[in-house]
Amino acid sequence: MTGFPILSLMLLVPLVAAVACLVVPREQARSVALIATLIDFVLGVILWANYDIGGAQWQFTESAALFAGFSWKLGIDGIALLLIALTVFLMPVCIGASWTSIDKREGEYYAAFLVMETLMIGVFAAQDLFLFYIMFEAGLIPMYLIIGVWGGADRIYASYKFFLYTLLGSVLMLIAMFWMVNEAGTTDIPTLMAYNFPVEAQTWLWLAFFASFAVKMPMWPVHTWLPDAHVQAPTGGSVILAGVLLKMGGYGFIRFSLPMFPEASAQFAPLVFFMSMAAVVITSLIALVQTDMKKLIAYSSVAHMAIVTVGLFAFNQQGLEGSMLIMLSHGLVAGALFLSVGVIYDRLHTREIARYGGLSINMPYYAVFFLLFTMASIGLPGTSGFVGEFLSLIGIYQISSWVALICTTGIILGAAYMLYLYRRVAYGEQKNADAAAMPDLDKREWAMMIPLAAVVLWMGVYPESFIAPMRKDIAALDARLAQAKPKGDAQPTAGQGTSGKPMAAHNSGHSAAHNAAPEGAH
Amino acid sequence: MHEVPTWVKWAPFAVMATGLLIAWYAYIKNTKFPAAFVEQFGFLYKFLLNKWYFDELYHYVFVVPAMWLGRVFWKVVDQGIIDRFGPNGAASVVALGSRAAAKLQSGYLYSYALVMLVGLVGAISWVIAQ
């Protein structure tokens, strides 16, 4: 596969299809979009199949100099591979979710989605700093249009809020990028990842990048655009927003903030922990009182993303791997939950929880899928949500047991608000006649639910498939962070078991952090 | 585990045996006994029937405060502070600023002439003061 520009092809296919969507008759736009996203999915599968696990760090690299030192440089490591896979997997589902519910300006709608796919893959594949920036920022435009044109009643407010928030942070990031390129003399991301910026400059650079990524993530207290954007967006827009766009913030931390500014990351870790702890508790409590299904899931996304950020700033392998897994899992699960809301929204045209009830009686298959995704969101063992949250919390426990303690309440509160939602929607009496008359899933909906459910279970039962591609890259990042690693508050002692053997023997199979036990024995 | 006194190990069995005896008496031997017990110890019966009122206790200790906190964080913090002074505040400051700026564009020549005069006077005084 060497030499074949598969990444460029993956960027090109949706772009060509987007143009096609604008010119074909409006009834055919959705078919064009579906075919294009399926082609990209197949290309994504080929990409993964040809990815050499344990091989070179950057694979499928392409490079073509453009102008003024700016170049078309693409390439992926395991982290980017997984996120690209998530993107191409979710896109056909989004098109499917929009199949019948979009009934105006179909051509433009599907064109916006396809452009977005190009930009999302571009964000994860870009190896040039400014190429990344362009992809990262341009992604705002199609999403802004999707919310603003095809959204709900209050769509204009939501789309402007989304745009204002996101753009404000990004401008600061652009200024920081100019400074970095000036200092390091290159726009090449892999080179910059190994470049040691002066420690005092790192502080400012870190804050500038943080402004952008924290909004994208979104972290408390800059999260208030998310509930509005999700509530107003059409189902397909919500799926892609929760599934992929939020992951760009986490990807930004992994690709830029942590490796480029390790000292500043360590310096600001307490800030990140504070914001994350606040997010976990506050947004979970807010989710508990929501009466709008989409808003509830949107707030739960903020809480889940907070566990991602604590895992990232745990500065160890478990934390980082856990965060990546939560991002992948949340992409699937939040996407699936928004899809589940979309399924019943298409039938009753309301997101009010109180208008439903007893759906497990008239929509039993729907109720099964909805329950699976609810459980995955809570983090039930055997579903994808468990693996990532468990690893992240193990990771953070080594740094701060208090942060771990507070973030764990998110799992309890998560169970509370998700089960409360499920109970009100699917169980109880069929108190609304129109909700009781809704038909169960049709073939199109089955076709969207099955793959999502399958991957959620796959990731829960055999996460190794998803950890293996990124293990080496996470280890490299961990090694890069070692120079700045903060000292944890855990003080493991060698202790004597009843059998007289030192406890440390149990840890031999674990990571470097555990192997540090003897030196921490004081 | 070896230091535990022997009676502790027997305790669960004793409790089980007591329960078995009471159940045998109340449901097989003398089936009028449960009704008589309810009659006699109504309060105790209701207390046990309602699971020691743990559900109610939890409702007031956990559920009600959690819901209240959620509403406060949502309405007061998210909407009342973050949104009000964040995006909505910024948007209204821009609108206010542009309204103020629009007022300057009165369209009257004498207003513009006055501004020019003030500017000229200011510039000359600055030069003289140097």
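qc> Chain B has six helices and no strands.
qc> done
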